[in-house]
Design brief:
Blueprint: H1 2-17, H2 20-34, H3 37-64, H4 69-92, H5 97-129
Helix pairs in contact: 1-3, 2-3, 3-4, 3-5, 4-5
């Protein structure tokens, strides 16, 4: 059991380091399989978001020497869900949780992509200039 967990951890770490690779694999693979490029893009976004959350959390923790990365991301996503749910409740009178969660997850993809690029540049710069 321990070996399986270690293998899963290594595969996740490998895919999370360069998240564009699994995104492209899923996008082109699922797109070629079904022929539906829009659905392939959405599925690739959803899978890559999980990888980006872990990678951005680790980058944040290493750059700022903290352990708040994952908790901060989850806090921001929960606050975003609350705000989107409030907007939906005020406009429609009820909250569709599935729709709110999907919106938060997909907005998280874009936010995590920007944070990944920014933190990766900062991390590379920090490692180059601290010799």
């Amino acid at each position: 059991m321990q070996m399986i967990m270690e293998s899963i951890k290594h595969v996740y770490a490998f895919l999370a380091v360069i998240p564009i690779v699994p995104f492209l694999l899923i996008y082109f693979g699922y797109g070629a399989y079904t022929g539906d490029r829009k659905k392939a893009f959405r599925i690739a976004m959803d899978v890559t978001t999980a990888l980006l959350i872990g990678c951005v959390a680790v980058l944040f923790n290493r750059i700022f020497n903290s352990s708040f990365g994952l908790y901060g991301i989850l806090l921001i996503m929960l606050l975003g869900g609350g705000l989107l749910g409030n907007v939906q409740y005020r406009s429609k009178g009820n909250v569709d949780m599935k729709r709110v969660m999907r919106a938060v997850w997909r907005l998280g993809f874009f936010l995590m992509s920007v944070c990944y690029l920014l933190l990766m540049c900062i991390g590379i710069g920090k490692s180059l200039f601290t010799v």
